[in-house]
Design brief:
Blueprint (H helix, E strand, L loop, with lengths): L3 H17 L6 E9 L5 H8 L9 E9 L8 E11 L11 H7 L6 E9 L4 H17 L4 E8 L5 E5 L3 E3 L1 H13 L9 H13 L4
Parallel strand pairs: 3-4, 4-5
Antiparallel strand pairs: 1-2, 2-3, 5-6, 6-7
Helix pairs in contact: 2-6
Length: 207
């Protein structure tokens, strides 16, 4: 992959192909490079954050799953922040963490941070990212699905978090879905966050 945008597009193709093969049964809707501000949601956000700049709502991958638990309604919104690193990339284990935590204000049911590395990055670097990031996430009990993995040109993932294993993109999408069912965004206990969630649903025309 040449850059992060190329990788996100390749992942989206992998999701579409997986659905075409009858996989990802719980995934009802997905979208990449979603700038919700362009849909008019930024104006809505301004009502909740008067006198200051509303949070930028840019989501690398939005997944909407069927919610068999019906925690709020029939669907479960998951926002994924992705960071892609090559051998010459300047990177830190906390890259993207601020963005994904900011998204928790906006009523997403689940949050996910993916640190993805090109196949020629040293294994020790990926493992170091995973160890440090998990120490922070677990130490603060942050309900994120964190993925640290190398990605080959064939879109095969070799992950160090949440476990050392390999699989396709749909394998990790399913894993993320199952994890988030039991690890929801705690801010959704707030009525204000639920209102923002309903507003996002309306803007995206999702029932």
């Amino acid at each position: 992959m040449r850059n992060e945008k190329d990788l996100v597009r390749a992942i989206e193709r992998g999701i579409r192909e997986g659905k075409g093969e009858g996989k990802l049964h719980w995934l009802k809707y997905h979208r990449i490079h979603l700038n919700v501000a362009h849909t008019g949601f930024e104006e809505i956000l301004g009502k909740w954050y008067p006198g200051q700049t509303a949070p930028k709502v840019e989501v690398d991958l939005l997944c909407v799953f069927e919610d068999i638990q019906h925690r709020i309604d029939e669907v479960m919104f998951v926002a994924v922040e992705m960071k892609y690193f090559r051998p010459d990339s300047k990177s830190s284990f906390y890259d993207g963490l601020g963005q994904v935590l900011a998204l928790s204000l906006l009523g997403f049911d689940g949050l996910s941070l993916w640190h993805l590395f090109s196949d020629d990055v040293e294994d020790s670097r990926v493992k170091g990212h995973a160890i440090a990031a998990n120490e922070v996430l677990l130490g603060h009990n942050l309900p994120l699905f964190y993925l640290a993995a190398k990605v080959g040109d064939d879109l095969q993932f070799s992950s160090y978090s949440p476990a050392e294993t390999t699989g396709s993109v749909e394998y990790y999408i399913e894993w993320m879905c199952n994890h988030i069912r039991d690890n929801r965004n705690p801010l959704l206990q707030s009525e204000e966050a639920k209102k923002r969630r309903r507003a996002i649903k309306a803007v995206l025309k999702i029932p």
